[in-house]
Amino acid sequence: MFVQGKVLTADNLLLRNWPCNPVCNLCDQELVTAAHLCLDCSFAKEFWLVVGWASLDLRQATGNERDVQTWRENNLRHLSLKKQQRSVAAVLIITAWPIWILE
Fold first, then answer.
1. Highest-confidence range of 27-36, 64-73, 79-88, by mean pLDDT?
2. For a designed S-S bond to 34, which of 2, 41, 47, 65 qualifies (C-beta 3.0 to 4.6 A apart)?
3. How far is 52 from 39, CA to CA, in rounded Å?
4. At what angle do helices 42-49 and 82-102 cross, to 10 degrees?
């Protein structure tokens, strides 16, 4: 959903002329986009550290990764087994969901 741009974040709501608070409720700093919620928000960055318990080699977003899909693909690319890729993809989804719900 985040990767496909279908989550109703503030940027998508504004495109539909739906009323919303465009500023992130978690960090109170930027427009809410999928990239902000998953990659840039200071709260989300801390939340992703929780994933460390799973001993996953999740990479923080770099300046080159401005969208969730690129970040997701970069986190899966280094894994050799499909089973590992599915497991990490599941953790990414399961972790991103509560960030969006909290926002």
1. 27-36
2. 2
3. 16
4. 140
In which residue are the tokens 């994933």 written? 51
- Sign for the pseudo-dihedral over CA of 71, 4, 97, 26: positive
Nearest to 50 by CA among 92, 103, 9, 7: 92
Please name the residues in contact with 45: beta carbons below 8 A apart, sequence gap of 6 or more. 60
User: Taking a C-beta distance cutoff of 8 angstroms, is the pair 88, 59 a contact?
Assistant: no
Q: Find where tokens 């890729």 sit.
A: 85
- The pTM for the full model equals 0.55
